[in-house]
Amino acid sequence: MSEKVKYEMEFPIQVSPSLLYQYISTPSGLSEWFADNVNSRGELFTFIWEGSEEQAKLVTKKSDEKIKLKWVEDEDAQAYFEMRIQVDEITKDVSLMITDFAYDDEIDEGKMLWKNMVSELKQILGSA
Asked: Domain START-like spans what residues (predicted)?
């Protein structure tokens, strides 16, 4: 089995970093745009989509900056996904930086999925 490949994406979002952080780091925020429902118990997040469940373990979390999770079922030890808030020091522009892993033939699909989800997030935040 080939290893997954890391890819990164950047999405400019016109919103305060602290508000954006609530949407990427809390079960209620993630339930608005990332999954149908999200529950967390300690470091374990349960994501629910149309009846199927996936669990991810919290790897790191830095207030108003980033959250990094690893899917429990993922056999690739290096794979994780991270949502990081980047603020340009000069312009103060805010971007959501996504880091994820996928097999070569699934990267385009993964990117499309992120684009769709972040588009929904932008609509919720009024930053479309």
From this structure: 1-126
The domain that holds 76 is classified in CATH as 3.30.530.20
Count up the domains in the chain and report the number: 1
Which residue segment(s) compose the domain that 50 sits in? 5-125
**CA 41 to the chain's CA centroid:** 18
Q: Tokens 């929904």 sit at which residue? A: 120
Tens of pLDDT along the chain (128 residues)? 578 999 999 999 999 999 999 999 999 999 999 999 999 999 999 999 998 999 999 999 999 999 999 999 988 888 999 999 999 999 999 999 999 999 999 999 999 999 999 999 999 999 86
Residue 4 CA to residue 9 CA, distance in Å, equals: 16
